Structure formats: C-alpha cells, structure tokens
Fold this protein.
Amino acid sequence: MTILSTEQILSAFKNRKSCRHYDAERKISEQDFNFILELGRLSPSSVGSEPWKFIVLQDPKLREAIKPFSWGMASTLDSASHIVVILAKKNARFDTPFMLEGIKRRGVTEPEAIEKTLAKYKDFQENDMQTLNDERALFDWCSKQTYIALGNMMTGAAMAGIDSCPIEGFNYAEMNRVLSEAGLFDANEWGVSVAVTFGYRTQEIAQKARQPQEDVVIWAK
C-alpha cells in the first residue's frame, strides 16, 4: 500500500474548493470516474448499513428536466462532467430485509448470531438513537451515512486532480418526483439525500475563510 505524506494530503484538501464553473469540453475518464464511485462504495457507515445508492445523471434531457428547481447547480448542469445524486434508504428499521441483508453481507449467518445482532440494532434504534418509530428520523440517520460517502468521493477526487461541489440547493420533492418517475428508483424505498457535481475548473477559486485552529477543543487529562 502506498502511504502519502501529510503534506500531500493537506495539499489536496487545500486545493479542493467548491467548483461553480466547469470546463464543458473536458470530461473525466471512465477509469477515473469509476474510481470516484468506488470511493463511495467503500465508505464506512453506521452498523455497516451502507444505506445508499448512487445515480449518475449523464442524460442531457434529464439534466434539463431538473433545471427549473435545481438552483444550487443551475450554472453547472450543462458543464459538469458528471453529476451524482446520492439516495438514502427509507425506513431502514432493524427488522427489515435491508438490514438483514447487510448483516449477512458482513459474514453473520448463524441464526443465533443474527438474532443477537438484530436485538442490538433494535436497542440502538429504539433507545440510543430513538429513531425506531419515526420514519423521518430513520431517513435522516441514513442520510447522515451518505454524507460520509460524499466526503470520501470529493476528497479522493481532489487527490486525483478532479474538482467537485456538494449540492443541496434544489427542491427535494421535485427531485424525488422527476427521478423516480424516470424509473431511476422506487420512491417507496429510497429518497434523495444530496447531490454532487464533478469536473475540471475553468478558473481559480478563492480560498474560503476557515475557522481558526483555536476553535478545535481538545479535552484531555
């Protein structure tokens, strides 16, 4: 395994800025974009749930269809090399087939072990997180996991010299409607969490002001 220096990693983080102006003529190679998607797929998630799906919007007609309500990426829908909409699982209760599949995927197959794991998940959702009987809270929990994948995809892209921008600036009801009606997902099972654009910048981007290091609290005895 290749170990990057801290300087190399920090350089990529400092160069990563939210890109609002992409070079429409310059496209990310299939190999490089598969690399970005793989970073999302390999991301960690709470209890190994991996409650995400990645929709890559390359169809110009579909991009045009979401323009009226996608103000956060209005300037990049035509120029971004790739646009990804990340979905979050709906109603991911401990006792659903979705959670059971995740448990088995991690190698837990013995009935007794499965039962113990599900009981632990039930306690986690019911008492620790208090999300079990709240459909919106369960969806928000899954959405939080998608942001881990989002961050990894953007950071990895930056380390490969590819620009990106996270997008929440759109009407969620309309985005869910248009994409589900296009047959891209079952709206009963999945919902839009966040979007992200990728490509190559056409101009330098001003460095954003950051919180000072003094705002980081370290408590140690």
The CA atoms of residues 87 and 192 lie 4 Å apart. Residues 135-159 form the longest helix (25 residues).
